[in-house]
Amino acid sequence: MVYVMKYLIIYLFFFLSLSSVAQTIPAHDPVLIKQDSVYYMFCTGQGITVWSSVNRVDWKKEEPVFAQPPAWVLKELPAFKGHTWAPDISFHNGQYYLYYAVSDFGKNTSCIGVATNKTLHPGSPDYHWEDQGKLVQSVPNRDDWNAIDPNLFVDDNDTAWLTFGSFWGGIKLVKLNNDLISLVHPEVWYNLASRRNDPGNTAIEAPFLFKKGKYYYLFVSVDFCCRGLKSNYKVLVGRSEKVTGPYVDKNNVAMMKGGGSLVAAGDTTNWAAVGHNSVYTFDGKDYIVYHGYDAKDNGKPKLIIRELNWDAAGWPVVAP
Predict the structure, then answer these.
(1) pLDDT tens digits, one per residue of 204-214
(2) Strands 38-43, 171-176: parallel, antiparallel or unpaired by DSSP?
(3) pTM for this one?
(4) Among residues 131, 205, 223, 294, which one is catalytic?
(5) 205 carries an active-site annotation
(6) Are 14 and 28 in contact (CB under 8 A)?
């Protein structure tokens, strides 16, 4: 009996150790979706990094979406080396839509593209990513906005919207056609959030829209990512009864005037900073997904998934 208990304890220790490691897999700008019993995570990386899991704890790395950059990307950004940003995944019209960004870091020389697939299961004979080309482009000295960090949102009237943007003029919103790969014409651009009132720090990006009750919630990330232990990234939120805004925070300050209520930030022991979130409902519970810069591992970006609760006034609260 002692012999059996000894090895049971060793097994449990080993299992828990594996779970702990799995919960801190590398990730930057993660998004999730579930097909059948499998969760798939897409994140920034060479050709778009892909992971799969059946429990959101133990993850398996899959092949990237793109083995080579699409031809149109190399035409628009000849120096592009394949590092593809901030994917967004969703299922509509009987297929999966994956939006992504390509850019020159620190410039608004950027494009948003979209790829589609009938399935996310790599072993399926139907598994094949078909790139649908460029959807939105920003050009320096022409556009006061940046075409990165796309997020598709389909409202209660089945109208499709794309929100995106960073720095410069802030977060934008534009309506899509039902094919979800083209813009409605004439184009109408909505301004959702900005930090222009602070000329010393206009850092705002990574918009994500989520509907809860009567409100549309706009999550954004502010301050600076990608600096390891020196990062000070954090997640803010505002809400509106209209998808086009205006979005305001808990103090009724408009997000276009620098408003936004804190949702998640770094701490003194585990995460130097956190940000670039997405929000989902799985099996009747809401979850927030983002990456954090691990304070105990030299600021490396890693996956964080937390349950998302809502307070009495209807504002999101991240569970411990």
Answers:
(1) 999 999 999 99
(2) unpaired
(3) 0.91
(4) 205
(5) yes
(6) no
